[in-house]
Amino acid sequence: MALNAYPPSVKELIQRLARLPGLGEKSATRIAMFLLQSSREDVFALADALRGMRGRIETCSRCFHFTDQDLCSFCADPDRDTGVLCVVESTADLMAIEQSGAFKGRYHVLQGVLAPLEAIGPEDIRIKELLARVEGEKIQEVILATNPSSEGEATAHYLHKLLRERGLKVSRIAYGIPMGGDLKYIDRVTLERALKGRLDF
Ligand SMILES: [Zn+2]
Predict the structure, then answer these.
(1) How many domains would you assign to the chain?
(2) Residue 40, domain member (yes or no)
(3) Are residues 99 and 185 both part of a single domain?
(4) How far apart are CA 127 and CA 146, in angstroms?
(5) Residue 96's domain spans which residues?
(6) Using CA atoms, how far apart are residues 49 and 196, in angstroms rounded to an integer?
(7) How far, in Å, from the CA of 70 to the mean position of ligand 1?
(8) Ligand 1: distance of its center to the CA of 62 in Å?
(9) Which CATH number goes with the domain that contains 29?
């Protein structure tokens, strides 16, 4: 059914939903139809959740993770190791590392990566704030956990240089062969990284 055949309010809902990641017009229409058949309470509760989320959530004044306080739960947690900082591109990456349970230090969210082709330079992401933190907090080690994309690698190299100049221990997260993976199907760059990032056995 053409979009114009819907009442204007439904059409607008579909168009807005279709802009969400992973949704096209088809899925958006399906969600809109589902909501039209849901109870008023359910739909209003969803609308309230959206409004509440956007109204209260800000970024942490220290690490730029999302929070509804001044400091996020990681920065405010006295049990976390304050000497180690894990630098990530986004809150989604932070959550992935957090869910692994393998890191108990603090984070710094860059809110992007260096991307010269898109004119995103050092002043466009949270690098200045990172340098201020390593100078102001008692940080001994910085783990660079940007993604293994060309932008992520370039950002890691750039930060590595700046941080080493300041006398910090800097490490890069090791990327390797996924569990259950098969060497002959792994791309060359991943294999190269896995070999370079090998550990004592
Ligand atoms: Zn924080």
Answers:
(1) 2
(2) yes
(3) yes
(4) 13
(5) 78-196
(6) 46
(7) 8
(8) 5
(9) 1.10.8.420
Q: Are residues 25 and 94 in the same domain?
A: no
Ligand 1 centroid vs 109 CA: distance in angstroms?
9
CA of 54 to the centre of ligand 1 (A): 18
Residue 70 belongs to some domain of the structure: no
pTM: predicted TM-score of the whole model, two decimal places? 0.77
Residue identified by tokens 């791309």 is 187
Here the CATH number for the domain that contains residue 188 is 3.40.1360.10
How far apart CA 186 and CA 100 sit, in angstroms, is: 23
Mark out the alpha helices in the chain (DSSP H runs): 8-18, 25-37, 40-56, 73-76, 91-100, 127-136, 150-165, 188-196
Residuewise pLDDT in 10s, the chain (201 residues): 688 889 999 999 999 999 998 999 999 999 999 999 999 999 999 999 998 888 888 899 999 999 988 999 999 999 999 999 999 999 999 999 999 888 999 999 999 999 988 899 999 999 999 999 999 998 999 999 999 888 999 999 999 999 999 999 999 988 778 888 788 888 888 888 888 877 777
Does residue 48 sit in the same domain as residue 89?
no
Instruction: Check whether residue 51 and residue 149 sit in a common domain.
Output: no
Tokens of 193: 């990284």
